[in-house]
Please model this.
Amino acid sequence: MTTGTVHIVGRQLPGATWDGRHNVDVGVQRRSEVIDLVRADAARAEFDVPVDVGDGDYRGPFVHGPRAQRFVYLSWGERAPDGTFTMFRRAKLRLGQMPSAVAAALAAGATVHAELPLTDANGGPITASVPPELITWTVAG
Model:
């Protein structure tokens, strides 16, 4: 098993106020914990996610889902004044939708980039499975 890195670059964030919620943040989910929180009114959100690759499978603490459908969660939540984060939505970046050359580079231990907008067509946080055409996958170089 080899460990590569998926460097996620989220752009076009929806803003820190949405649907009656204030202090909205986005973070990456490691197991059940959301970490590396970024305010949703930032210019961009960047996350480095280590991914173990071997035997045609993706694994690690940031990887979720059954073997044939592995993904990384970007989780949206509201941060209370005491710092408590309450998640209300998530977006899935499906690892199996990477172009084959990018997947091969990740399997060889490279850093790959996944760049995507974090605002949906209605102006809110992007959620559910992110359509593959919205993610630009490249090998860091």
